[in-house]
Known about the structure:
The chain is mostly helical. It has helices spanning 9-16, 28-39, 49-55, 74-82, 90-93, 104-124; strands at residues 22-24, 46-48. Strand 1 (22-24), helix 2 (28-39) and strand 2 (46-48) form a beta-alpha-beta unit. Residues 63-70 have low confidence and may be disordered.
Amino acid sequence: QLRPPKAPELLRQVLSDPVIRKVGGGSVLYDSVKLEKDWGLEVLGRINVCELAELLGYAGGAEPVSSNSKQGDVSAVAKSVLALDFKKPQQVVKSDWERDTLTEGQISVAAVEPWIARESLKYLE
């Protein structure tokens, strides 16, 4: 396996700063572990908005994405916290996220999910 090029120093600083919050759904831990394994990047300051929503009594906050997953779904948080009906197309969910160039659908989901997580956190706080 080829090693990826070294990550930019500014990215390393931002990800390792616990004061800068990295808000996401149930995959925030998985993504952090993958960044550390693949790139040697430590991610501090993670907030799983799905767990937070559930702790605060919102329905669906940490429900599993699928039967073999323990990760919460940002779509459920969007509905219960923001009253926003966001559904990820299954074609995009099941697509190859490791490919060199993401599809437009993947880019859209990758942009909208963090926005939903951030807006949910702002509301929950």
